[in-house]
Design brief:
About 80% of the residues lie in helices and about 0% in strands. The chain has about 290 residues and is mostly helical.
Amino acid sequence: MPLYVLLAAACAALSLPLLAVALIGGDRRGQKRIQQNLSAGLVAAGGPVATQKRSAFSVLEKLTLPANRAKLERLHALAGRPAGWSVRRLLVVKPALAMGAGLFGLLLLSAKPGGPLLLLLLAIVVLAYFVPDLLLYSRGIERQAAITLALPDTLDQMMIAVEAGLGFEAAMSRAGANGKGPLAEELVRTLQDMRVGLSRREAYLALSERTNVPDLRAFVRAVVQADAYGISIAGVLRTQAKEMRLKRRQRAEEKALQIPVKVLFPLMLCILPTLFIAVLGPTIINVTTSF
């Protein structure tokens, strides 16, 4: 067996444990440090600071370009920052997946070398590298759709609470506590941002940046303007809730009008040929046997 085949197999075998640790194992060193701080208190100012040792995965983290890392941060925020998919773990998984796919492709290429197989190998490596980005993008799209769908009902709940005498933050807290899904989580996160010191404007703008939903951005702009100019928040909520319900109905009608166009191509490619065969098939057979 050629030497480079043995080297490729050895590298593939070594990359699998790294990938498993990156996927399964968390930041145990950081968790242990947090537990020590909670139990023994924070380190006093001016005291000795423990130097952080370089992780075994720091080399893999540096293989990701800064532009791709910023995009990954953005996708991670839009996906709701899932706990099991930390950015550091994704930065390790991306090159590890690409290396594993590349080494596996080298094994296939050594068995049967050729130009088309080499192009397929490059495509597989690129796809393996961007698999975490695609998963985060898909999860972010689903999350934004869920926020758009739940926004009108949440605004109705907040409007009822404000008209009953509660303040806007109290109504937001009630809607976040009683609701479920990503929108309720974002409302709770916004209230937490205000409790740790952010102003209302900064917390609301951070909410619109984290979600990237056009309807929610319009609502945030209306709330920020109402807070700046002293407009009644109940009237803003009533107007925004009515507009969101109208937009939701219009989106449903738009999707219903798209159904005939989407059904046309499966009908022409799958159903009509079968129907023609069933109807005209016996006639064609009779004609061919008669002549």
